[in-house]
Amino acid sequence: MDYGSPDDLGRPTGVKATITKDMINTGTSANPAIQPPGWSGNGTAFNEARGDLLGKQLGGSGDIPENLVTLQQNWTNTPTMRGFEGQVRAAVEGGQVVDYSATPIYNGNNLIPKAVTLIGKGSGG
Fold first, then answer.
1. pLDDT beneath 70, residues of the chain
2. How do beta strands 74-75 and 78-79 pair?
3. Does this UniProt record's set of keywords contain Hydrolase (predicted)?
């Protein structure tokens, strides 16, 4: 896994990983002590999530600040990102190796990404 270095504003810049079977379900939940850039302090009240760029089900660490961005819980974190991660997981469980990347896209100096580009390319196409 390669977690990019934070940018000048301290924002996570992305992750690249090659997902293999031994990584599935080895990740950790987002650490509540980590406050990603733009975090309001109350995820429930503001529909926010500490969004993993590389999700727990794919072996991502919730203890690495470079892996966590502030996202909307509904519809961005779940079901959109979780659904994509589920497709990657299914491909890996089906025998493929998947090259995966997640890149947050920021609007100017905004601390919260306006989008996250997710790419997964399996060894079987």
1. none
2. parallel
3. yes
